[in-house]
Amino acid sequence: MQLNINGKIAAIVAASLVACAGLGLAVSEATSSPAPQHQAIVLPARSTSSPPKIKIQIQQNNNTNPPPATPAAPAAPAAPAGLTYAGTGVDGESVYVNSVTSAPFAMNVESAYYGATSSSFEVYSPVTGQEYLMTASVDSNGTVTVTGGNNALVQFTP
Predict the structure, then answer these.
(1) Is 72 part of a structural domain of the chain?
(2) Which of 23, 29, 97, 116 could form a disulfide with 121, with the two C-beta atoms 3.0–4.6 Å apart?
(3) Is residue 67 part of a domain?
(4) Confidence check: pLDDT of 146 > 70
């Protein structure tokens, strides 16, 4: 929709906007909902004897569809029986733990496994501040199970 406003009303509106801008005042619309933001643009006054013609263009959004929903974060992969998901390992694999093993320790175990030169290796726990001897085994499916410490168990499939 497009409106043309002439005459005294246009002069008053233009003068008011120039006066507000000259005083450093801002005109705003207070709302309690996230409505679209509106902004007034003040143009310099003309030096003509006739009032300027002001053209106001109003655009209306007739889209009644709500914005698309933000996709939810992917759910953690299903854990093997008796284990819980601890996080993603260094090679992107899912790491699982038993009930007495912390996730930060599990991440250290998984990382240490890749640098180990034997099936037994020491791993630092950031939760207890101690090192624990852990032993790894690999089943026929390639699943790595690492046990040790105080009944800790960490499992992942590279």
Answers:
(1) no
(2) 116
(3) no
(4) yes
